Structures are given as structure tokens and as C-alpha cells.
Amino acid sequence: MEVIAIHCDQCKERYCTQQVSIFNGLTPEENAKIHGLIQRLSFKKGELLILDGQAYDRLMIVHGGRLKAYRDTADGKQQILHLFGPGDFLGERALFAETNSAYTLEALTNVAVCTIPREAFQALLDEHPSISKKILETLSDRLTHLERTLESMGAKTIEKRVSAVLVDFAEKFGKREQGRFEVELPLNREGIANYIGLTRETVTRKMKRLERDGVIRANGNKIIEILDWEALQDSGE
Fold it and tell me: Radius of gyration (Cα) for the chain, nearest Å?
């Protein structure tokens, strides 16, 4: 881990607070106050930011890169709970009380994280209670997403699970350029399998079927092009 001593006003990229929904509606002066609280941390791909059960005391805002939150299962596999990208925040439970992490957090790419310590953030919440409301709204959305994932694992067919997770990745990580809709997958085939409760072989087989059907096209191991968005959505419902 590398600690980068940089103030937001010196940042050559977008302010991370402008990417995070919980800070929407604050005045420039209020945002400037938040900028003065931030410390930037840098992690390399594969590094662990937090261990399951470890105490932590700060809000984390993903400035760049991707992270996965997971738990180890009794049979030695990973159960991936959440994926985070630029603009996402985490560590919110630590803002309200002393607590331990409910998962291990690993960098999927090189990652830059902007952090705000608990005590400083609690003082900010006292001044701006609307931020607490937005945090609760975001947590509710995450819970809904997790419930849908669990429901999908139990009720949907294998093919529908694969299609549904590709739709999820496309909405979060996809980009349209020159008429093409490409998605850089945040996980490899084994990671996707762990995320939706399948085997790697099954995920690979189902993705090849989607290719044969003209729904997607693989450009290497981690990038897919979506050729028929409506068909992909329909096959995941």
C-alpha cells in the first residue's frame, strides 16, 4: 500500500466527491471542506485492502480501479458479494459505530482510494444530515441487488444466471464507442462462476453459446462486445 499525500485541489483528475451520489447537492464550499479531509491510498492489483473481521474506521471512495468484496466459504471457495468501481463508496458501516469488516476487499486492478476518517466524517454528518439519508438509500440499493443475486442463484436456470450477470456488468462497466457496446469484465470466468454459484466450465460453455447465437462476441479473455442487447436482457429474465 502506498499513501499519497495529495490535496484534492492538486488532483489532476475529477474530484472523487463529484462522482459519489451521497455528496450530490452540497455547495462548492461544503465540498471544499470534504476535500480537506481526504487522504489518498494506492493499491496494486491483487493487494488486500481489508481482511474479513478486521477493524476499520473510515469511509472509502473508489477514485480509480476496481475492487471485489468476498468471503471464503467452508469448502475453500470465494463467495463474491460486491464489485466496486470508480464513484462507489464502502466502509459506511464504520462511520456510525466501531465495527469489523464483513468481507475481504481485494484490488482487481491497480486502485486509488480516497478515504475519510470516522471522526471527521461524523462531524460532517452532524452538519449535513442529508448525507446520512443518501447513504441509507445506497445501502438499500445494495441490499436489493444482493437479494436479487441470491434469488437468481436459486430460481433462474444456469443460462439465465450467466446472461443476467453480463447485463449487470454491462450496466456498471460497459461503454459505447463508435456504435459498439463493449464491456471490460471485472472478473475472469472463474470469478464470474464464484459470483453466481456455478463452475468455471459451465460459465465458459454458456458464454460460448451466447457467442454462437450472435448475442455477444468475445474480444480476448476480459472484453466482450454486446451485439444484441435486447436478446441478452431477455435471456437473463
Answer: 19
How would DSSP label each residue in 43-87? E-TT-EEE-TT-EE-EEEEEEES-EEEEEE-TTS-EEEEEEE-TT
| pLDDT means over runs of 10, the chain (237 residues) | 52 60 71 78 92 87 91 85 86 75 92 86 78 75 70 67 90 84 92 88 93 92 91 84
In terms of Cβ atoms closer than 10 Å to its own Cβ (0-12, 13-18, 19+), residue 95 is buried
Q: Contact, 17 vs 35, CB < 8 A?
A: yes
By CB atoms closer than 10 A (0-12, 13-18, 19+), residue 52 is middle
Q: Which three cell numbers stand for residue 51?
A: 481482511
Whole-structure pTM value: 0.76
Domains of the chain in start order, with CATH, are: 2-153 (2.60.120.10), 156-236 (1.10.10.10)
Instruction: Outline where 77-199 has alpha helix (H).
Output: 118-127, 129-155, 158-173, 189-196
- Residues 164 and 207: their CA atoms lie apart, in Å, by 12
Residue 1's pLDDT is: 53
Closest CA to 124 of 7, 61, 31: 31
Element holding 2 (H helix, E strand): strand 2-4
